Amino acid sequence: MVPFSFGGHALYALPEGALLWPARQALLVADLHFEKASWYAARGQMLPPYDSLATLADLGRLVQATGARELWCLGDSFHDSDGCERLPREAQLRLRTLTGTLRWTWITGNHDPDIKDRCGGETADEVEVDGLVLRHEADPRELRPEVSGHFHPKLRLAVRGKTIARRCFVATERKIVLPAFGALTGGLDVDHPALTKAVGRGAEALVPVEQRLLRFPIAA
Amino acid sequence: MDLPQPLAQWFAARGWRPRRHQLDMLREGRAGRHALLVATTGAGKTLAGFLPTLAELIEAPGEGLHTLYVSPLKALAVDIQRNLVTPIDEMGLSLRVETRTGDTPSDRKARQRVKPPQILLTTPESLSLLLSYPDSVTMFEGLRTIVVDEVHAFATGKRGDLLSLCMARLQRISPGLRRVALSATVADTDGYRAWLAPDGDIDQVAMVQGEAGADPDIAILLPEDRVPWTGHSGRYAAEQVMAEIETHKTSIIFCNTRSLAELIFQDLWKVNTMSLPIGVHHGSLALEARRKVEGAMASGRLRALVATASLDLGVDWGDVDCVIQMGAPKGSSRLLQRIGRANHRLDESSEAILVPGNRFEYLEARAALDAVEAGELDPDLFRPGALDVLAQHVMAMACAAPFEAAALLNEVRSALPYSALTEETFERVLGFIRDGGYSLKAYDRFKRLTQEADGLWRVSHPRFVTQHRLNAGIIVEATMLNVRFKNGRNLGKIEEGFAAQLSPGDTFFFAGLSCEVQKIDTEDLIVRASSKPARIPTYGGSRMPLSTNLADRVRRFLADPSEWPRFPKDVSDWLEFQAKRSALPRPGQLLVETFPREGRHYMVAYSFEGWNAHQSLGMLITRRMEAQGLKPLGFVANDYALAVYGIDKITDPAALFSPDILEHEFVDWVQQSHLLKRAFREVAVIGGLVERQHPGKRKTGRQVTFSTDLIYDVLRKYEPTHLLLQAAWDDARARMTDVGRLAGLLDRAAETMLHVDLDRVTPLAVPVLTLIGREKVSTGSADDALLIEAEALVADAMRID
């Protein structure tokens, strides 16, 4: 793994779609979308009710592997405002264990602005941590270094006649947009105008593969 | 058999006499028996199907729906006009004949349910939707006859499953319903009789054979009597094909793929020195474009039409006097049906020309010609009904009325594809519709179906009914982008996967034009006509494999030198050289050659099991080689052979062909490959797990659709035995990997293998080795390697010196 420097901090973009901040022993993830499946089920599309469990299993593994002590969720952690109570019992237990053992902060997003019970953890609309602004949706007017989520960026490339689609990070000098971490979250192409509008021109798509961080300029 | 007066007069006025099979159909109709009519195109099949209906309505006129006509095609207009509406008008009968498809305006649809015509023309999907309405009982209770046209084209697939279930329901609503099916010539008439019959009771279905037409006149086109070593399309023969077009009135040029049709059209256009009007027709073209071409064809304004299977069905063109098949025909039934497009007069032979693309294809063309002469047809594979289709049907039944599970199961079992359905599987289907059928009971509050105190199952909310009607249907297309000009004119659709490979400035052949990409957005690919040379569109989709009976014939050719004098000299020379240099397999023998070439070691197996099975085998064998440390580099397959190459010499091919490969490598490979994900996408839509993407409704801004690939991943991890995964596996096995033929090949391999080790390439190996489209063996994270390569390329291209 190769760190990259952002706002004066060394950060690692992990292949799993999280950002590791070794100086704070912190993990940053975005757009978990817990219980997205059951939200659709209520509307007649009976998606497999395992998405929260799958997302939590991935998260748990990552916490273990990195030894993280802080976790920052950058919004849209819950697909809707029902929050913790709709999680399957096993998922609730796992989440409460995680929020109980780590310093855990929920940044609010457009899907989950107002939730009573999030199975533990602190809640904030946005925060500044050691000079980095953490919020859900990138603010084009923000001048400080900023880490956000919301857009679910995805890189699509045609190489040798094969199309490859990957969740990816999008970065400029002052902004990082994280990929969605949730098990059932789709993606938005990195050259989508909405994303360009939010982060400005000259952005790169960052794709972590084993031992390397690949960089692709985004044509805007 | 007496014809009612108006009908007799109508025939007489035309100077016609009803054909024997038309009268036979009338007799079966009057006797109230189900009937299957098997006849060649041009035998007055459609009229034969409707004759009993017309006779009954003449003798006992009445209101209400009398006859339902179901065809796999939406475009019925021309054909039905000629075969049904014109006779009705000319006899002055007051009968209403109406069409109902997805394109029918909704006010007419509503009116049809209240005041149905006497004859309704529809598709399996539209019929299924009609049956989802509570008033379907009133609408169909007087239904006397259902006529299923072109039954050979879809009975063995998912649309056949759906129609079979619909017929079971119709029979319950109207027990006296008579079932009639019209078919082109098929090998297994009993199979179709059983499919048509209630409860699969074959004896209830009368068999009516049409009169045999004149034997077709088929020739193989060999420019200068030579057949090229390589290629698979016959493109080298463009000038000769053009000469045929010039000397015939109207020709159809059939191609095996859409992209080939575009290429052949371009080739012909270049040598079209007389500027004859020629057109192109395939399933990706815009509906308006297809209709326009069909119209021009029907009115005799085109001299030639380059087409794909989209023209295989239905529509009769009348004046076509020559059918040309580019490349190998792949099966004798298919060839016959295509030939049947020409010359619809039974007493004159149809003229057809085959243009083989290489020497194996020559043998295949010769085999097809022999098979047609011998009246040998390809087998049809009837299989158990698909579970995703059953789920869709059960939901439709629930929308129509509350049901009792046991009664519905009985009804479903009376459809042959589902006759062996177990109670347990049916329960699982019900559970799946109710709440997804997961073992984690998380969706109790969200049930779509509820079983009430009276034991009946009901849809729990009207919005699920609406949802079903919006999403029902059997055809699931890949996500497509519209190809348009900037002014909005729509040319057709291409698959998203192909579009993703294009950038502005790229060119490709489409709709007979060289198109230059200007802009790509989420739904449209904006192009302009260009004079630059173009790339080929690859539309994806599966290829039709060589049929088993043609494969057997080709094998017999190889083994029997007494056949060779019939072949052109370069083909017989080729076989003689092969016999001298290596060996020719006897029928039933599996020839495997190994030889070095340019620093690599090759193994070529001549197994003749078709492209799909060979492609699967190539994947499996290279995996096994990997495991054995044989360092495979790649493989290439065609319908006849599989060639594998690598760094090390293969000394024991038999060890690679053992049947246990199906237990070990196969499951692994299919699960990791895109096959199962593609199959899952289809069953998830048909089964109603996810909603269809409706064109024009894709979200802008943040995309909120979810990919079925993600659902697949979660489901495989947490509930690997789920009904939909089972359905996806069924599809992957049957349609995508040809696992039946693969298993047969592997079972025989040990006993029948003839291994010849050589010091250089053999004549028989050349056609497969010169193919493009090789598969590279991918080790580990192949996508990562591609991404790394892409980054390096981009970095080089963008480097500032």
From TrEMBL, chain A:
GO molecular function (one) = hydrolase activity
- Top-level taxonomic group: Bacteria
Keywords (alphabetical) are: Endonuclease, Hydrolase, Ligase, Nuclease
**EC class of the enzyme, as a word:** hydrolase
UniProt key word Cytoplasm = no
Q: What is its EC number?
A: 3.1.-.-
Q: What is this protein called?
A: Ligase-associated DNA damage response endonuclease PdeM
Q: Which organism is it from?
A: Sphingomonas kyungheensis
